[in-house]
Amino acid sequence: MPNRKLELTFKYFTASQARKRLGLSRYQFDVRLNRGILPQPTFVDVTRVRYFDEQWLRTAIAILDNAVQVT
Q1: d(CA 7, CA 58)
Q2: Contact, 10 vs 20, CB < 8 A?
Q3: β-strands 13-14, 50-52: how paired?
Q4: Which fold has domain 6-65?
Q5: Which pLDDT score, from 0 to 100, does residue 3 have?
Q6: pTM value?
Q7: What's the pLDDT score for residue 51?
Q8: What b/e readout covers 42-71, taking b as 16+ CB neighbours within 10 angstroms?
Q9: Helix 54-65 crosses helix 15-22 at what angle (to 10 degrees)?
């Protein structure tokens, strides 16, 4: 399992941190990324760890807030 880089965690959110901020499960988060509903990660390192910045998070929140709610 890839490990996140300490110096990058000061600047970016990891996928698990971003998921928690958005209130999504890992499955929901990954499906939305793969389908292009959410933007691609801000940065992906050589070990394939995904990082997300504050602007990405604000954009994702706006997208989810404007999404059609299905019941």
Answers
A1: 22
A2: no
A3: antiparallel
A4: Multidrug-efflux Transporter Regulator; Chain: A; Domain 2 (1.10.1660)
A5: 73
A6: 0.83
A7: 95
A8: beeeeeebbbbeeebbeebeeeeeeeeeee
A9: 40
